[in-house]
Recover the amino acids of this structure.
Protein backbone atom coordinates (compact mmCIF):
# COMPACT_ATOMS: atom_id res chain seq x y z
CA UNK A 1 0.00 0.00 0.00
CA UNK A 2 1.48 3.31 -1.02
CA UNK A 3 1.40 6.56 0.91
CA UNK A 4 -1.56 8.03 -1.05
CA UNK A 5 -3.74 4.99 -0.34
CA UNK A 6 -2.84 5.09 3.32
CA UNK A 7 -3.71 8.80 3.58
CA UNK A 8 -6.96 8.20 1.71
CA UNK A 9 -7.97 5.49 4.22
CA UNK A 10 -7.08 7.72 7.18
CA UNK A 11 -9.17 10.61 5.83
CA UNK A 12 -12.08 8.26 5.06
CA UNK A 13 -11.98 6.85 8.59
CA UNK A 14 -11.77 10.37 10.08
CA UNK A 15 -14.80 11.45 8.01
CA UNK A 16 -16.82 8.44 9.17
CA UNK A 17 -15.93 9.02 12.82
CA UNK A 18 -16.85 12.71 12.62
CA UNK A 19 -20.46 11.74 11.83
CA UNK A 20 -20.73 10.20 15.30
CA UNK A 21 -19.38 13.36 16.92
CA UNK A 22 -22.08 15.48 15.27
CA UNK A 23 -24.77 13.40 16.98
CA UNK A 24 -23.61 14.48 20.43
CA UNK A 25 -25.71 17.01 22.32
CA UNK A 26 -26.33 18.43 25.77
CA UNK A 27 -29.17 16.73 27.63
CA UNK A 28 -30.14 16.49 31.28
CA UNK A 29 -31.83 13.87 33.41
CA UNK A 30 -34.24 14.81 36.17
CA UNK A 31 -34.09 12.39 39.12
CA UNK A 32 -36.09 12.77 42.29
CA UNK A 33 -38.16 11.36 45.12
CA UNK A 34 -41.62 12.53 46.19
CA UNK A 35 -42.18 12.77 49.96
CA UNK A 36 -44.70 14.40 52.26
CA UNK A 37 -43.94 16.83 55.10
CA UNK A 38 -42.96 13.97 57.44
CA UNK A 39 -40.52 12.46 54.93
CA UNK A 40 -42.74 9.49 54.02
CA UNK A 41 -42.51 8.54 50.35
CA UNK A 42 -45.53 8.97 48.08
CA UNK A 43 -45.69 6.15 45.50
CA UNK A 44 -47.68 6.21 42.26
CA UNK A 45 -47.34 9.96 41.75
CA UNK A 46 -47.43 11.32 38.19
CA UNK A 47 -44.58 13.78 37.59
CA UNK A 48 -44.86 16.06 34.54
CA UNK A 49 -42.20 18.52 33.42
CA UNK A 50 -43.10 21.09 30.77
CA UNK A 51 -40.56 23.10 28.82
CA UNK A 52 -41.80 26.68 29.21
CA UNK A 53 -40.28 27.81 25.91
CA UNK A 54 -41.59 24.98 23.69
CA UNK A 55 -44.56 23.74 25.78
CA UNK A 56 -43.23 20.18 25.32
CA UNK A 57 -44.15 17.89 28.24
CA UNK A 58 -42.56 14.68 29.55
CA UNK A 59 -44.04 12.50 32.29
CA UNK A 60 -43.02 9.69 34.61
CA UNK A 61 -44.66 7.83 37.48
CA UNK A 62 -42.93 7.30 40.81
CA UNK A 63 -42.14 3.76 41.87
CA UNK A 64 -43.00 2.17 45.24
CA UNK A 65 -40.10 4.13 46.81
CA UNK A 66 -41.44 7.45 45.48
CA UNK A 67 -38.52 7.76 43.02
CA UNK A 68 -38.72 8.88 39.39
CA UNK A 69 -36.40 9.50 36.43
CA UNK A 70 -37.08 11.69 33.38
CA UNK A 71 -34.13 11.41 30.95
CA UNK A 72 -33.09 13.33 27.84
CA UNK A 73 -34.40 16.80 28.72
CA UNK A 74 -33.20 19.56 26.42
CA UNK A 75 -31.73 22.65 28.07
CA UNK A 76 -34.39 25.17 28.98
CA UNK A 77 -36.76 26.40 31.65
CA UNK A 78 -39.20 23.81 33.03
CA UNK A 79 -42.34 23.82 35.17
CA UNK A 80 -42.87 20.73 37.35
CA UNK A 81 -46.28 19.29 38.19
CA UNK A 82 -47.02 16.42 40.65
CA UNK A 83 -50.37 14.67 40.92
CA UNK A 84 -51.76 11.71 42.88
CA UNK A 85 -55.24 10.70 43.94
CA UNK A 86 -54.68 12.73 47.15
CA UNK A 87 -53.16 15.98 45.84
CA UNK A 88 -51.98 18.02 42.90
CA UNK A 89 -49.17 20.56 43.20
CA UNK A 90 -47.53 22.82 40.62
CA UNK A 91 -44.01 23.93 41.40
CA UNK A 92 -42.14 26.94 40.10
CA UNK A 93 -39.91 27.13 37.06
CA UNK A 94 -36.34 25.83 37.07
CA UNK A 95 -33.53 25.93 34.50
CA UNK A 96 -32.29 22.65 33.13
CA UNK A 97 -28.97 22.34 31.27
CA UNK A 98 -25.58 24.03 31.21
CA UNK A 99 -25.24 27.34 32.97
CA UNK A 100 -24.02 30.37 31.09
CA UNK A 101 -20.25 30.58 31.14
CA UNK A 102 -19.79 26.91 32.11
CA UNK A 103 -17.92 26.11 28.90
CA UNK A 104 -20.55 23.57 27.82
CA UNK A 105 -22.41 24.23 24.61
CA UNK A 106 -25.88 23.02 23.58
Amino acid sequence: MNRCQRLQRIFTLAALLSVFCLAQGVRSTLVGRVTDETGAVIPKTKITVTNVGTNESRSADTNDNGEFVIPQLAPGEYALDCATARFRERFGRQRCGPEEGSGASP
About this structure: Residues 15 and 101 are 31 Å apart (CA to CA). The helical segments are 3-22.
